[in-house]
Each structure stands twice: as structure tokens, then as C-alpha cells.
Design brief:
alpha+beta, about 260 residues, five-stranded antiparallel sheet, Type Iii Antifreeze Protein Isoform Hplc 12
Length: about 260
């Protein structure tokens, strides 16, 4: 065999061995064997990379880190099979511990259905570059819904229809890993069944437009002319007691009649 061929074979063996070592180290970073865990420490599942909202968790997304058993938070995962396949309900940054309250079980269908809160519904509104806040809407944002109606010769009426609504998706995207504005044609909101009825009615009677809210602003808007309903004064219970007045000449006496 020629020396050149032997050299190529030797190089291939070395590269294959190096790849195997790297792959083994990568797996060990994500799967800790209980026998190698330090005494008093517990392997806990954490994010190896940023996991965006609505993402199904895969093996490449997680790693295991050791934490003191006495300081473990509630809802952790110590088994990779228990966390793989779940859907993330919030953005999770690299290194963050995966908790049960931040993921949900995927029971089939789209991943969006898994992140809808209990008792809520997903409702899609058609928008354009203006109605959709010039493309600055992203999943996870909060918006107000404004309704406009034409009044013939009287002009147009506008009012805030719904407030502080959560954006679940824009177009067919439920991921929040983008920051650049993207012009979309549809925005999916998380609403109650009653709010869904109000939204459908508004889209049939006129147009709806979205206004972006600061995520920490939960102040309710009071329409001009509206006043909070006055509190009813507590009624006082009046007790009447019968009395008898007796007049004897110039003397007048009054006595209460016992029931």
C-alpha cells in the first residue's frame, strides 16, 4: 500500500476519534449519569440555548446542571424524557432552569393550541401595515383593540373595544426570536369567548385597529364621558316602637308599649 494512502487512512482515523470524543462530551453535558453526580447535588434540566415562545423542546435545547438538593425550586425536571416534547409558554434564555409552570404538554395539533390559557380562545384579526402597528407586533406583545364605525354624514366614531390583549402569533409565526419589524396580514389574539363575540361583531360592523401597549402598563382606559358606577349607600334599618301619650290636666306622659 502506498505511503500516501496510509497517511490518509491515519488522518481519517484520528478525525473520527476526535469527532467521537466531542460527541461524547456533548452528550455528557446534557445527560448526567446518576452515578457521577456529586454528593448532595442533583442534575436539573436547563436551557442550553434560547428557547422561544411556542417552541417544542428537543434534546438539543436542554442541558443538565448540578444544583444543591437543599435549594431546589419547585417544578424542576431531573429526567430528560419528562421535558422533551413539551411546549414553551415563555421565552427561556440560555442557562435558565426549566420549570413546569413555563412549559405545557403537547397533546397534538398545532403548538399554538398548547399555549392558550385555560378558558381562553385564539382569535385571528386581519390587519395591514397600519392596523398592525407597522409590523412592530410580535408574539407576546400586549395590545388594545380599537373599533371604528362609519356614521354616514356624521363622520366616524372610534372607541377602545378591548384592552390589554395578548398577541399569540403574527401570520403563521408564534416565535418571539425576531426584533425587526415585519409586515403581517393577520394577528392572533388570546381572548375569552365573550371577547371573541365582541371582536367578530366589530369586524362586521366596521374596522378594527391595534395599538401597542407597554408590557408593564396594565392601566385600564376609561372612555371620555364615562364615570365609575357610584357605590350604593348601605340602607339603615329603622326600628319603630309604638308609644302612648297620656294627658292628665297639665301633665303629659309618654310610655313605650312593649311587644
Amino acid at each position: 500500500m502506498k505511503p500516501r494512502v496510509l497517511t490518509l487512512i491515519l488522518i481519517a482515523v484520528i478525525l473520527a476519534g476526535g469527532a467521537a470524543l466531542l460527541a461524547n462530551k456533548w452528550l455528557q453535558d446534557r445527560m448526567m449519569v446518576s452515578g457521577t453526580t456529586t454528593a448532595g447535588m442533583v442534575p436539573v434540566a436547563a436551557a442550553a440555548v434560547e428557547i422561544p415562545f411556542g417552541q417544542k423542546i428537543e434534546l438539543a435545547h436542554i442541558k443538565f446542571i448540578e444544583m444543591p438538593e437543599a435549594s431546589l425550586p419547585k417544578g424542576i425536571f431531573t429526567d430528560q424524557e419528562a421535558v422533551i416534547g413539551k411546549i414553551v409558554t415563555q421565552n427561556i434564555l440560555p442557562g435558565e432552569i426549566l420549570l413546569e409552570k413555563r412549559v405545557v404538554k403537547h397533546l397534538g395539533g398545532s403548538t399554538l393550541a398548547a399555549v392558550i390559557a385555560s378558558g381562553m380562545r385564539a382569535m385571528t384579526v386581519r390587519v395591514d401595515d397600519v392596523m398592525g402597528v407597522a409590523g412592530f407586533l410580535l408574539p407576546g406583545n400586549r395590545v388594545d383593540v380599537l373599533s371604528t364605525k362609519g356614521r354616514g354624514n356624521s363622520g366616524v366614531s372610534v372607541r377602545t373595544l378591548l384592552q390589554d390583549m395578548k398577541v399569540l402569533a403574527v401570520d403563521q409565526t408564534a416565535s418571539t426570536d425576531k426584533n425587526d419589524p415585519v409586515i403581517v396580514r393577520a394577528v392572533t389574539l388570546e381572548v375569552t369567548p365573550r371577547q371573541a363575540e365582541i371582536l367578530v361583531k366589530a369586524t362586521r360592523e366596521g374596522k378594527v385597529q391595534l395599538s401597542l401597549r407597554n408590557p408593564v402598563d396594565d392601566t385600564a382606559i376609561v372612555e371620555e364621558g364615562e364615570k365609575p358606577a357610584p357605590k350604593k349607600a348601605a340602607s339603615k334599618k329603622v326600628i319603630y316602637q309604638p308609644r302612648v301619650t297620656v294627658v292628665r290636666g297639665t301633665q303629659v306622659t309618654t310610655s313605650t308599649v312593649q311587644k
